[in-house]
Amino acid sequence: MAKKPGGTPAAKALLAAGVDFTLHPYDHADGATNFGEEAAHALGADPQRIFKTLVADVGGELVVGIVPVAGHLDLKALAAVLGAKKASLADPAVAARSSGYVVGGISPIGQRTRLRTVLDASADDFDTIFVSAGKRGLQVELSPADLRQVTGAQSASIATR
Prior knowledge:
Strand content: 25-35%
Helix content: 25-40%
Radius of gyration: 14 Å
Number of helices: 5
């Protein structure tokens, strides 16, 4: 994969880290609300390789869960991995403020406030995966190992199919 410049904090963070990545722009449809599925369809990619970034509240702490768009975040599993009793999805406005990104374009990379992050273990089934590059209509492709490196993520089974 070749590095390509991009103007988002995510792309800048990847360039600064020296990580190999490729940006994949696509036309985002106004009114679309299922952003991950839209990206998978537009890019012709397997929905198991496109990962969504979800901000959750785990015991009063905001955290990030990264799971395939073809699945759902298992909140009980996320809480257990992080040593808490329960978790809930964060309010979208809170997630946007914390990350510095708009809902539907929240990237796990280059967030305004770095949060503890868990990447679903299924990411390791692929050489590369896609996550939001920090705005609607832009995905970044990179290896799961590089994503863990730049986000400080740990891997665990946190998705339901």
